[in-house]
Specification:
five-stranded mixed beta sheet; alpha/beta; single chain
């Protein structure tokens, strides 16, 4: 039987606490021992001044009510915000600014322009839930698949919490957050892979964490799955350590090629090459080169894997399309010196290309000879 709708209550800004375990703080920072001023220090980079401007102009409406849970934090029962932390951070920073403790000139300007009533900071609307699990579905829809999406790493950590702390299956997570099982599974395995990387001293996690989306995308390629021995169909228990012990050295190589470190740059910087990176790892010759070379190059690995041919085909087809377009009008301007110069260059380049394929050159010459005879 569904529960009755929770009622909106009101509390002072000072009585509402930021969540030190908020997934947006990142797994390296988030901790119950994190002090409130430390949480706020991180969150001041989340553009809370934008929300503060909105509060000054329009107030804090009940439909923006924070969602809180009453739990023990810093050894006492407190109202901890589980949804709306950025709003609360904006309120706390604005209150400090109004009280003459602005953290910057921008916040001082906001405070000076503020005409908020005295009771504003003491009547913040909130809705209390019994436990975090009661609001997990709402958070999932809002931040994982909804309009207020978290970053990929934040989504993955949240999914991992649902699986590991609430004991949910992939399908149960899917139902909670409105996603699909393959996406849930891939997020979880990518997150567990991230944790495994963190155990390797040779991997610089500062380079990895900022590109979690690249890690996530790379896992969908067969080459990465095969090279690391990752089973993307594994259930949570088996997926806790996606890369087996015998492949740990490969995990280090994979991280170095994909993310780089202080000593070496990644093989490529454009995430559009992730799928091609996967194809490279399907080639034993390309892998041998990558593992052997002190400073491997992406273009060399592509050639060894044979993936560069796709670019060549694209270039040739594009050139052919352009020639076909020019044929419609070229005869009208055949005496134009610039066009003559351009056609000469095209002819020279085309002959160089055709000579690479002597069989085609012979065929074309025979066709031209037959056409000449027929006329």
């Amino acid at each position: 039987m569904p529960k009755a709708a929770p009622k909106i209550q009101y509390a002072s800004v000072d009585d509402l606490l930021l969540d030190p375990t908020n997934p947006r703080l990142s797994r390296r920072i988030a901790s119950k021992s994190l002090k409130q001023h430390e949480v706020l220090e991180v969150m001041k980079d989340w553009s809370p001044e934008e929300l503060a401007t909105s509060f000054i102009e329009s107030g804090f409406w009940p439909q923006e009510a924070l969602i809180v849970v009453k739990e023990t934090l810093y050894r006492k029962k407190s109202l901890v915000v589980v949804e709306g932390n950025r709003r609360l951070a904006a309120l706390k920073l604005l209150k400090s600014a109004v009280e003459g403790k602005a953290i910057s000139s921008k916040w001082k300007e906001l405070a000076d322009s503020s005409k908020l009533p005295k009771e504003f900071f003491s009547e913040i609307p909130y809705i209390e839930v019994e436990r975090r699990a009661d609001v997990s579905a709402y958070l999932g829809f809002r931040h994982v698949t909804g309009i207020k999406e978290w970053k990929p790493a934040e989504k993955a950590e949240y999914i991992a919490k649902l699986i590991e702390e609430e004991g949910l299956t992939y399908d149960q997570v899917r139902k909670k957050i409105g996603s699909k099982v393959p996406a849930v599974r891939q997020h979880y395995i990518a997150y567990r892979l991230l944790l495994q990387m963190d155990q390797q001293s040779e991997i610089d996690m500062d380079f990895v964490e900022v590109k979690f989306s690249v890690l996530y995308l790379s896992l969908r390629t067969q080459g990465v799955q095969s090279y690391l021995g990752v089973d993307l169909q594994s259930e949570p228990r088996a997926a806790k350590n996606p890369v087996k012990r015998e492949n740990q050295s490969r995990l280090v190589s994979y991280a170095t090629w994909l993310f780089g470190n202080e000593k070496s740059k990644p093989l490529f910087s454009d995430s559009r090459y992730v799928d091609e990176f996967g194809k490279i790892l399907e080639s034993s010759e390309a892998i041998e080169y990558l593992e052997r070379a002190e400073s491997p190059r992406f273009d060399v690995a592509r050639r060894k894997a044979g993936t560069a041919v796709d670019d060549v085909v694209t270039y040739v087809l594009a050139a052919s399309d352009s020639i076909q377009l020019s044929l419609a009008e070229a005869h009208v301007f055949r005496k134009n010196p610039e066009l003559v110069k351009a056609v000469r260059r095209l002819a020279q380049d085309s002959m160089q290309l055709v000579r690479v394929f002597p069989g085609i050159l012979k065929e074309v010459l025979e066709e031209l000879s037959e056409d000449a005879s027929a006329t």
